[in-house]
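Subject: for your reference before the review

Hello V.,

The reviewers asked for a structural picture of the protein, and I figured it would be easier to keep everything in one thread rather than splitting it across files. Below is the amino acid sequence we used in the manuscript, unchanged from the supplementary table.
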Amino acid sequence: MSKSRQIEIWVGLFMAGGFLAMFVLAMQVSNLGAAYSGDTFAVTARFDNIGGLKVKAPVTIAGVEVGRVQDVYYDAEDFRAVVVLGIQDKYRERIPTDTFAKILTAGLLGEQYIGLDPGGSEESLGQGSEIAVTQSALVLEEV
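And here is what came back from the structure prediction:
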């Protein structure tokens, strides 16, 4: 095999590795690469303004990811956005009913996510529960 042919093969392998690395990075940034093993339960929260919050955005407690946003829709009855949170089943009996939900921004790209601050209630959130106290996203244009 000639020397130029070997160089062409190495350059091709290097380019393929670069494309693979870019694909993995794109999956990490877009949150499409994350998946859970096991089931989730749905909890809703109503916000006056969700900013740029998207489906599959992380849901965290104390910086630890406990779920993902499953759905976002507009409720024409009370003129608010409804966010459906898919919380991992292992946290079913561990999140109090008086938990506070807020929309936060992370990273250089301004990715928005839901941060939960647990309250002190003895009762826990379950399937179909609603988080009553919420804080909307900070929209820079309104500041």
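For the response letter, the relevant points are probably these. The CA atoms of residues 94 and 124 lie 6 Å apart. The mean pLDDT is 87.

Happy to draft the paragraph if you're swamped.

O.
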